[in-house]
Structure formats: structure tokens, C-alpha cells
Design goal:
single chain, 307 residues, alpha/beta, Rossmann fold, 2 domains, six-stranded parallel sheet, three-stranded parallel sheet
């Protein structure tokens, strides 16, 4: 079986190009550029790469960018005050908390502190409700994760059929994290057909292998790299690897004085080739498109303010 390794670069570039054009058109009318604020935390392994990546992408697109890096022990009251500062600033149209937040903070309370109209990832509890139950609440923007997945699948011709079995595997840390669990359930509600079996399982479960062997779509959210055993997989499975792990840093080929990250997910692509029909890998894959959609949502946030 041929395994198709799905990459989001083409879709990412298309969305980026449209976002840049939209921002340019807005500025040409004489208004200020949209404003976006990123808040990150020290001690997160990928923070020194992910934060500059977000800032550069937003600046290249023409946004006015605000960014704050807070210590790992930042008190909630201090973080809440910073969020409120951006909530009340009319020049800031989107606020992004770069996950994960430090362990002593309740991530749901952190996301809930952002005004729903400025929370553009889809992680605010009200915005998640709008994704899960649109009849009750209409979302202002699509949730980035499922929207990215659906756009990639549409581009690559991956069909989601009624009755296909979906399995989401989460590390114990993610399984017990209330925000991560809510995000997974919300994203699944958007992507998984209503009559398809859906299981969300702890990586430590004794029934892990049993469930893997039945899955037509396997979603892996793990801080452990390359641990999925190809012998567990159903032939033809589509794999979606989500969490990026910093394995090591190596000198850049272009500039040996600079270090570049080596990033891996929970699935070793080489090991599943010939078994899986499709895989969205780490690095690349889904997360490349998520950032582009986040910026697209931020433009929508700007337009809704009438600035």
C-alpha cells in the first residue's frame, strides 16, 4: 500500500497570501493594520521557536504585533491583568495564548479571560460551545484545528465516510487536562460524522492496542515520540499526528552558529509507510495550516469591529 504523507505547505501559502492581501487592502483604506497579541511562557521547550514563528508570520502578513513572555510561575492575577489590558485595547483585535500554560494555572480560566470576540483559536468555552452546538450559539470564526484538518483533507482528496471509526489517543497529562480534553471533544464534534464510532483513550489504557486495530482514523496527541507500533494499525488507516516535541537542537546547515530544532510527533512516519493510507506528520502537516487559519480568523476579528 502506498502511504501519502500529507503536507500543509500549499494550503498554508494560499491562506497566507489571502491574509496578506486582506491586510494590505484594509491599510490602503487609511485604517490601522489589525492588531494581534501573543502571550507565551518561559520553560516551554518549544517556546523560543514557536513564539518567534508566530510573531514573524503575523508581522509578515502586515499585522501590528504585541507579544509578552511571562515566567513559568506567573500568578493567575498577573496574567489576567495582562489579558484584560489587551481585552480593553481597541488596537488589539485578537489575543492568542500559546499553549501549554504552566501547570499551576487552570487553562480553561485563562482562555475564558479573553473576550470571546478576541479569542480566535476557538478555545474560549463559549466559542467551543458554538462549534459543538451551533444551534445554541453561532461562532464568529471557525475553530482552527478542525478547520485546518478539513481544508487539508479537501485539498488532498481524503474522504471521511460515515461509519469510519475514529480513535483519539492522549497522554495521561493531556487526558486529565480539562482544556485539552474539551478541545479534542469539540474538534471531534466538528469533524467526525455523527454515525461514526468515536473513542478518546488514555495512552496508558490496557485496551489501547485493541482500539488501535479498529481505527480508520487515528489521532495522536503525545509528548512521547515515535512510540506508535505499526503492528497495532489497521491497514489503510489515516493518521493525524498533532503534538510537536523538541527532541534536540542541531547547528543550522546554512549558519552553523545558529541552532535549529529537531521536532517529532508520536508517530514515526517511516515505520507506518506501507500500512497507513495517509499521514499528517510532525513536523509539517496539520499545524502549518492551523497558524494560517489563526491569522485569517484575526483578520475576521478586525473586520467585525468595524475599525
Amino acid at each position: 500500500m502506498e502511504t501519502k504523507v500529507l503536507q500543509g505547505a500549499v494550503i498554508q501559502e494560499r491562506i497566507y497570501s489571502q491574509v496578506k492581501q486582506d491586510v494590505s487592502d484594509l491599510v490602503k483604506t487609511g485604517t490601522e493594520a489589525p492588531g494581534i497579541a501573543f502571550i507565551g511562557f518561559e520553560g516551554v521547550p518549544l517556546a523560543r521557536y514557536s513564539i518567534p514563528l508566530h510573531i514573524k508570520a503575523a508581522m509578515d502578513a502586515g499585522f501590528r504585533v504585541y507579544h509578552d513572555l511571562r515566567p513559568a510561575d506567573v500568578p493567575f492575577d498577573e496574567l489576567a491583568a495582562l489579558i484584560d489590558l489587551y481585552n480593553n485595547d481597541p488596537r488589539v483585535h485578537a489575543i492568542v495564548i500559546l499553549q501549554p500554560v504552566p501547570g499551576h494555572l487552570n487553562p480553561i480560566l485563562v482562555e475564558n479571560r479573553i473576550r470571546p470576540e478576541k479569542e480566535v483559536e476557538g478555545f474560549h468555552p463559549l466559542n467551543m460551545l458554538g462549534t459543538m452546538v451551533p444551534a445554541i450559539r453561532s461562532n464568529q470564526y471557525p475553530m482552527c484545528l478542525p478547520e485546518a484538518l478539513m481544508e487539508i483533507f479537501s485539498e488532498e482528496g481524503v474522504r471521511i465516510k460515515n461509519g469510519d471509526e475514529w480513535l483519539f489517543i492522549l497522554d495521561d497529562e493531556f487526558f486529565s487536562n480539562p482544556l485539552t480534553h474539551m478541545i479534542v471533544r469539540t474538534a471531534a464534534a466538528r469533524v467526525v460524522p455523527k454515525d461514526s464510532p468515536l473513542t478518546i483513550i488514555n495512552r496508558e489504557s490496557e485496551k489501547l492496542v485493541e482500539h488501535c486495530r479498529m481505527a480508520d482514523f487515528l489521532v495522536v496527541v503525545s509528548k512521547f515520540t515515535g512510540w506508535v507500533d505499526p503492528e497495532w494499525l489497521k491497514p489503510g488507516v489515516t493518521i493525524i499526528d498533532i503534538y510537536s516535541n523538541l527532541v534536540k537542537e542541531i547547528p543550522s546547515k546554512n549558519d552553523p552558529s545558529k541552532l535549529v530544532p529537531v521536532i517529532r510527533g508520536g508517530v514515526n512516519v517511516d515505520l507506518v509507510k506501507g500500512i497507513a493510507s495517509n499521514i499528517l506528520p510532525i513536523p509539517g502537516g496539520l499545524m502549518t495550516v492551523v497558524l494560517a487559519i489563526l491569522l485569517r480568523n484575526a483578520v475576521m476579528a478586525y473586520k467585525r469591529t468595524g475599525s
